Every structure is written in C-alpha cells, then in structure tokens.
Amino acid sequence: MPELPEVETIRRDLEIALTGDRAVSVDVLDNRLMTKKEAFQWNTILAGQSWQSFGRQGKYLFANLENGWRAGFHMRMTGQLIVSSATHNEKPRMLIHFASGKRLGLYDQRRFAEAWLLAPGQAWHSETLPGPDALNDLKLDHFIKLIKGKTTRIQPLLMDQRLIAGVGNIYAQEALFKAAIRPTRPGYRVTKIEASRLYEALQETLQTAISYRGSSSRNYRDANGEEGSAQTLHAVYQKGGKPCPHCRKPLRSTRVGGRGSVFCPQCQK
After folding, report:
1. What is the rounded (10 degree) CA torsion for 32, 34, 39, 45?
2. What's the whole-model pTM score?
3. Of 143, 209, 221, 265, which is least surrounded by CB within 10 A?
C-alpha cells in the first residue's frame, strides 16, 4: 500500500500541480532515506530543472526532468507524496522546493519509502525489473499464459511484482472476488475462460479505484493530502465474517502466501 490506483492518482495530481515548475533545492531530513553524498547529488541534479512530465510503472512513480534525469519514488507501506505551500503536520523525510513556492514532501510514518535518481538512458535502479504494468502494458494473451504456467496460488501470483507490476493485497482480493475465483487456487488450475474473466475483473477493479481516487483504508493520501474513496466499494477486503454482497454467506478470512485474504466460500470456487 499504496497500490497502482493510488500511485496513478498521485501521478495525475503531480502532473497538474508541478508540470513546468522548476526545482530550487532539496532538503533530505532523514539519513535513512539516503546518504549525504546522494542528497548532494539530488541538489546538484535537480537545481534549476523543470519537471516536465510524470510516469508510473506499477507502484513506482517517476518525475521526468528537463535534463533527461528521472526522480523515482516508491511509497512502500506508508509513504505519501504531498504538494503543499504550507507546513504539513508531520515532519517529511524529504522536502523539494520549487520556484513557484510549492513544496513536495515525502512523508512516511514507517520510513520504508524510497527515492532515487535515474541518469539519462538508465532503465532501472536495480537488477530486479518489474513485470508489465497491470493497467497499461499487460495483455490478455500474456496474462493467460502467465497464470496457466504457474503452480503458485493465484492471489500471490497476482501480487508478484516481477510478473505483474502494480497489484497488491487489496485489488488482488477484489478482482478475484469479482471473477469468482478462490485466492488459494493454483494458477495452472484456472481455466482459460476463468483467466480471461479475471483479466477483465482486474482491469475494471483498477480503473474504478482510480476513478474514486484510490483506497484510504490506512495511510494513503493523494498529492493534495486528501483521502480517496475507493474503499467504499470494497466487497471483501478486510471484511472477514461479514455477509457476502452476493449470496449473504459469511466471508471467510485466511492466509495465502503469508498475506491475509478474504473470500466467499460459496461464490468463489
């Protein structure tokens, strides 16, 4: 958390708020975020540079700078990127000042969020590449082959960022419920028809969550510091023991691949 819909919402907010604005300086206020040498590099690379556009790959967010460099962010569990011209209630781990007077703060209660720079032409910051973006790059035929070729249970398979980028615990559970597939089912036991149904359910779930500006069941806030409302649509996430929205049987809580999951034993097979 945040997952793809939340990061996409932030990306769109930043595009509106900061496109064309020039960075002036960077304050790194948490030495766990980066070294002094890295903080100096951020100031050197960003100073005077216009932020021209914003990109996303799964849960990763990027700011594309005038000089060809990219600033990358990963919110992990509790990270927030908030644009403000006033002081935020919490102390930021990083604060980027802009010529307009706006400031972009990286706030992070549990201090797991990451920030890094990518040089012009540098594809990624680590050896572990993410899979195709679940919304923009994932094609149906590839999805079906991926699902059918794995013995992994379907929920952790959907959440493996090396295979599909952007899906986490919330939207994996919701898409599986929409597709009527039990989260414990191994991938190879999902039929092609079911896999196609799951693909459509996943696309619809992600798109709808974006239209509701993400789920704020925990720490997520958009770039304006506001909550999303997609959590009001959740059918199963964190609803163990409550009636299934379809059959009214009690939803069942379990653990799949070390992560919590909720499903309907009547509707999901």
Report:
1. -150
2. 0.96
3. 265
